Amino acid sequence: MNAPTMLDPALASRFAEIVGERHALRDEAEIAPYTVEPRGLFGGPAALVLRPCTTEEVSRILGLASETGTPIVPQGGNTGLVGGQMPDSTGGEIVLSLSRMNRIREFDLSSNTVTAEAGVVLQTLQQEVAAKDRLFPLSLASEGSCQIGGNLSSNAGGIGALAYGTARDLCLGLEVVLPTGEILDDLRKLKKDNTGYDLKNLFIGAEGTLGVITAAVLKLFPKAKGRELAWAAVASPIAALRLFEAANDRAGNALTAFELMEQTPLNFVLKHMPASKPPFAKSYLWHVMIEVSSGRSAEDAQSLMEEILGQGLEKGWVADAVIAQTVAQAAQLRRLREGMSEAQKMEGGSIKHDVSVPVAAIPEFIARAGKVAQEVLPGCRVVCFGHMGDGNLHYNVSQPVGMDKAVFLSHYKAMNEAVHAVVRTFGGSFSAEHGIGRLKREELVATQPAIATDLMRRLKQTLDPKGIMNPGKVI
Ligand code: ZN
Questions:
Q1: What percent of the residues of the chain are helix, what percent strand, and what percent coil, each to the nearest 5?
Q2: In angstroms, what is the span from residue 348 Cα to ligand 1's centroid?
Q3: Interval between CA 243 and ligand 1 midpoint (Å)
């Protein structure tokens, strides 16, 4: 059975010819996985899914799309949380899957770089790099299926951003196919390069609206010689902030994670993830997960961690703490943090906020956002966790126990507006690490300075005059 299509069959055949019939999916069942996303909020039928294998093929696809005005939706591992990788409901868009472009083209260990194609799965890259005794520090809950092209297109963040930056900071060069089909080969390995405008940074974080990233030069780092992971109960978000400052002061760049979470999401994980164990016998309101990585030795990492926690206990910021004694224990603690999004799903409807504020403002943000959330919907359960060291919180709200899910979700917009208004008072961002996609497009236009959105539109018009690249996303 064929998918509903507005695409002329003769034109579909011209597209299919470029990649070969086997890699041009038209059957509804084959297309289905490309048209649903993790949250189930977006998605529609696609006219065709094309799976090119080379940059040349991508170039020919976009050239034809440009000539015929056919909309193209680039897609990586399909783990995006804002609908940026989804076709619309018209059935006339083509999904361009980069999955088959999954080669690692080159390691350059003297320059500490790897050149990888867009479809390389993040975890595969991490493993290949580790086998060369190096580290690629981007780390996300979805790393088993997300892909490098998508990571760059959405400027992914995650836990490691604290020490190593976001995907943008990890990229030295790009190969991009422009909407016209032209290829911009900018696969340079240079840390220092001031040759005019920084074009690659236009495409990073653009969510596939300005062109298609087909390959990238990524930075590698030395593997840590010692790593320590600790879980600590803290008295309050202010105590967590003081502990973060102390950890930063002691460990500097060796502080590779500092995560903050409430007891509520931890309870969800303990309740819904079968093998999970509580870190402490007692229940506490607030927790942090700290990771220290030493370039020198295991002993160095250990003593840094002991100093940080020792100071925390002495000052009364830390109520209880546990340092992982084995790799397996560290993995167990990590899973408590990483399982929070998944476990929250089991508690019914969830209203999400992916926000960032200056680190120093986190305690006050939490206090004020908690108040407005209860004003919008008394009894709602705030599920706050995130990357404290980056000022980035996943400030989610679960439905009150027993409430109808649809009734709860009818408060989505009001809740978003109230929480984001608090974010703005701190000069924060309502889109910290997940992007804009379709989910936040209207809000971007409504809340950002007119000159900024106008400039974005002018850039889009210049690079994509036919408007074929991922229409309806970002701007
Ligand atoms: Zn996150």
A1: 40, 20, 40
A2: 20
A3: 20
